[in-house]
Amino acid sequence: MAEINLSLLPAPNVIEVLSFEDILAQMKAAAIALMPELEPVLALESEPATKVLQVGAAFVLLTRARVNDAAKSVMLAYATGGDLDQLAALYGVQRLVITPANPLANPPVVEALETDDALRARVQLAPEAFSTAGPIQGYEFHARSASGQVRDVAVSSPSPGMVQVVVQSATGSGVPSAALLNTVFEALSDETVRPLCDNVVVVGVDVVTYQVIASIEVMSGPDPSVVLQNAQAALAKYTSDQHRIGRAVRLSGIYAALHQTGVTQVNLTSPLADIEPTKVQTARCTAMTVTLAT
Question: How much is the pTM?
């Protein structure tokens, strides 16, 4: 079963688009329908009656916003934090610990947990785990669930009976340690997971490195340093998002990330072509140098 891209789903009808002005207008219309003589009074912002309706409209807005939040909390595409944990529990999925807490360390280590996006992706794959790991998505779910250190997984079958699982680590360059590979292999070797006829091979991802070197030209008016920070942040997010197995780094994506509000021109020095990793590779940006054009 293909994984659904939750970001492409239409917004649910239960989530209302809120507008304070619309609510206030509705309340004024209702009041005028009951007492027509209020119409000239409510046309004035300074009138106490208008202020009372504004307060009422604000409370209605807050109430409807709370209803929106409650509706989102039970939808996989929107739920976050503890709400997402509760949804995951329905599928027998628990948020993974990436780094255990160690209060005795110097300095103390704070517990690092699986991100909402990573947990959400595993919940989507969870139904594939209701049987043995025959389907590709089944192997992917079990591999991702083996450890919080797993950032990405790619599963393929190079030949009949052969299953290759490529693992990318959540730390460092993405190359997994031997211990992590062994953890994933053991998780996939469980008799309740792997069909008897499958020969599973777990390997680490190969890393393709690149650097981004660019300068941006900023229109007069905006603070150039703020525009530069926004461009750098957007580029960092794009390169991080693309640091997955087989995910290409497109020049168009780099240009889009750098072309933030206030930018009139992007001058890209490196890379000069799209970076297209294979199904066993990941593209990792080792350095980003973005400056203001002089």
Answer: 0.70
Could you identify the residue written with the tokens 């409209």?
Answer: 57
Alpha-carbon dihedral 241, 242, 246, 249, rounded to 10 degrees: 160
Domain boundaries, the chain: 6-72, 82-204, 208-292
Give the C-alpha separation, 63 to 55, whole Å: 13
Give the distance from CA 294 to its chain's centroid: 35
Kindly report the number of other CB atoms within 10 A of residue 100's CB atom. 10
b (16+ CB within 10 A) / e for 43-57: eeeeeeebeebeeeb
- Beta 263-270 vs 281-292: how paired, if at all? unpaired
d(CA 150, CA 115): 12
Contact, 183 vs 146, CB < 8 A?
Answer: yes
What tokens were used for 73? 């909390």
180-210 pLDDT tens trace: 999 999 998 876 676 667 789 999 999 999 9
